Amino acid sequence: MTIPFEVKSVDRDFYQEHLQGFLPGKLIDIHTHVWLDQFRTQEKDERLRAVTWPHRVALDNSMEDLRETYRLMFPGQTVTPLLFGLAISLQDDLDRGNEYVCQGAQKVQAPALIFADPKWSEAEFEAKITAGHFLGTKVYLTRSDPKIAENDIQIYDFLPPHQLKVLDKHGWIVMLHIPRRDRLRDPLNLAQMVEIEKRYPNVKVVIAHVGRAYCPEDVGNAFDVLAETRKMRFDISANTSVENFELLIRAVGPRRILFGSDLPITRMRMRRICESGTYVNVVPKGLYGDVSADPHMREVEGDDAARLTFFIYEVIDAFRRAALKAGLGSNDINDVFYRNSAEMLGEAGMPDSYLHDHEGR
Ligand SMILES: [Zn+2]
């Protein structure tokens, strides 16, 4: 098969120096996208209410590519993914995408979430999840009513109460990428996150990317509010903020933090910096096409470019540094990278056999 990306000595060196001794032998990746390009609309959606740079990294991510990515990136680990699709555009083929995830997950005995449409009725939503043996749902803001402008989208526009009710009844999972320009510090986001936890206590809510708090300016008083919560979990995927990871650890402790990759976009070769409160992905010149129109992308050349490794390595290394500052031990690290997710997936209905030699403790 064709290798979906190149592994260089800079990557192998980075893994050996920073990650190999830090990571436990078994990982659960709680945030993984798999889909085929043929499920995506071929029309350019001008109204797509999301950033554009992720599309430049991977056209698709098949089950085979995902397995190969884990083998290349984590040579010393076995990785169990929680799988879901990618149906960001309203024109994407949601049903075929979900069918692909369902079949792939059954074949390799891995857990999966359905990519949901907020228009599905209560009964439809419940029937689709049950029929596909999913453990819950992945939702995304671009599936909200197209009449709503990106900055006005609220959590309930794409995770409606009637679907939360179903998730609550079954104790299922929702992977939630929060909306709005102010990200984690947005008071409406925070109020609704807290409200969901109170009103639907059995739903296993995972806030993706630490609520998109990629820079210190994205935080506001969020961690004071979150320190009062008891259930919601946070995945560290696609976030490289050592400062925010440390604040998260101190606010909610290591038992509600989950490792996630957000593959395939995090096989991107890049380093993230913050400037005036905005994140910028520093990438090798030319590798991701013409990025001049994207304020979140910046190109570098020569030695600066040669030093860049995978986004996912940068994420794990940032968490490693935050864990050191916050005084986490190896049991805590194993919790974040494996045990917390193993327990959550088990409670949501995943058969024990999916984690073959899961011994627990
Ligand atoms: Zn994602």
Describe what you observe in this structure.
The chain has 361 residues and is an alpha/beta fold. Helices cover 37% and strands 14% of the residues. The protein has helices at 9-19, 63-73, 94-108, 122-131, 155-158, 161-170, 187-199, 209-212, 222-227, 242-252, 302-306, 311-326, 330-347; strands spanning 26-33, 78-84, 114-115, 136-139, 173-176, 204-207, 233-235, 257-258, 271-275, 278-284, 297-300. A six-stranded parallel sheet has the order 3-4-5-6-7-8. The protein has a three-stranded mixed sheet with strand order 9-10-11. Strands 1-2 form a two-stranded parallel ribbon. The protein binds zinc ion (ZN). Zinc ion is lined by residues 31, 33, 262.
Q: Could you name the key traits of this structure?
A:
3-stranded mixed β-sheet; 14% strand; 13 helices; 361 residues; globular; binds zinc ion; 6-stranded parallel β-sheet; single chain; alpha/beta; 37% helix
> Could you estimate the helical fraction of the residues in percent?
25-40%
Average pLDDT number: 94
Cα distance, first to last residue?
Answer: 39 Å
**Small molecules held by this entry:** zinc ion
Low-confidence stretches: none
Which geometry do the CA atoms define?
Answer: globular
Structural class: alpha/beta
Largest sheet data = 6 strands, parallel
Helix count equals: 13
The string of secondary-structure elements, in order, is HEHEHEHEHHEHEHHEHEEEEHHH
Number of strands: 11
Cα-atom Rg, whole angstroms? Answer: 19 Å
Strand content: 5-15%
- Strand arrangement across the biggest beta sheet: 3-4-5-6-7-8
